[in-house]
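Hi R.,

Here's the chain you asked about this morning:
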Amino acid sequence: MNIEQEYEIKALTDSIGPFIRIRSLNKAKHFAIYRTFTKRFPNGQEVNADIKEDIKDILVKSIKAKGITEGFILKFDEDDNYSDFLEEKIDPENIRHINGKSEKSFTSTGDKLNAHWPIFHKLNETGFGSIIRATLTLHQVCSSRCQFCSTINRNKKDSTTFEETKEFIEKLYFEQAEYNKKNFPSYNKKYKELTGSDIRLRGLILSGGGQPNLWPDFEKLVNWLSTLDLDIGLITNGFPKNIDDKIYDKFKWIRLSITPEDASPHYVNQKFNLQRIPTNIINNKKTFFGLSYVYGPWTNDDVLKRLSSSIKDWKLDYIRMLTDCNLTRSQQLKSHSVLAEKLFNLSLIDKFGNNKGKIFHQLKFHGTQEEAEKLWSDGKCFLQTYNLFWDTTGHETNGKSFCYPCDSVTVLAEENTRQQSKRGFDGNIWGTVTNDKVELLYKEKWKKFFDPRDHCSACLFMKNNKAVKNLTNLKVHELNNIKIDTDLEHINFP
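And the predicted structure, written out as tokens:
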């Protein structure tokens, strides 16, 4: 990808000081402003620094060469001079990290898939998938301008309607259940014995693209969803005052994304901890409330300390911390290593990487071509058999838009090819079916829409794919020995 064909990159100065502005060249012209960058030293230490006049042009050259994420990492020698040196690769096994209960519960690591094993037994014997989990982007309007935005290349006019969304969910909820009861009664019976439900949609997430609670019919949709036997989750950047706060009581969980503090209009005095949080969210014991924070050049110890303090102030159930997924694998791992050490030095994790409180580190990083070739020997993604992500990109032009196997295809930075993250959904590359034909994902046999070995070798969900593959390979006599971790939360969001 020629980055200058996709983005306008300018070094500018205002009353605050020098900054880099990166604007998408699509018709929506979304942009982000960067006032900080990362200094990396030969010993692996990183320092997050303000952009100065003497460095802004160097940054522009670096961004054009390495992309709009890695381009903000510059190497400096021991004397703090801009330099270049060879870096050792980080082995993920050497990063302080334990995949504990919080990470398994509040993220998609593949550990909850065992609790749904009859659908994979069905897949193995019949070839038919079962969509039990879905994520929807309702529109592409967002109030924040995050530097790490995974969908900056989007059109804010791409939006669905309440009627379209309702029809989409009805197919996955009502029609899918009836289809399985009629065509796969034995598998449906086994799934119902295990879970109490027919094979149908079990967990639904409203997410971005845009900010879901800015969508005009947000309250109407949530009220309707609450009439179904369905767990619903919300991922948002903030809580607009024009929304009735009581609507948030209807969610199984709410995850608030904490953006860089200069990127959000919700933050009073550019402090995330001064934003408005509805009191009923804080005091609702039935709805899990957590934060997600992406570590990057905008992070300092003060931010991390205030994040820790927010646990008590907002009665949080967890804080998930991770690195920028737009980085390539090697740079991601370096960033993970630095983040882990920062958390350890602040006594937020122990020397092994166990979380000591409600903050946990999600060790999420890209796969490799070698892993891809081994995993997808048949050239078909395993995620598309139980999961979908419906994004509205293209809706304005076509009146419909594509579903995808996951939400992370936009951030696939390829290590070997130096392919930068696309930061936008493209149905011609990763699309499965359009929203008006979503029933084909469970009414037709599992098939190849694209070859993940060609388009997803940097997959962030290798563990999930491997877990599905292992479950589908089990023999009948092995099914009764499947271990289900009953301590995990959010079991309907595998």
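Residues 162-183 form the longest helix (22 residues).

Let me know if you need anything else.
M.
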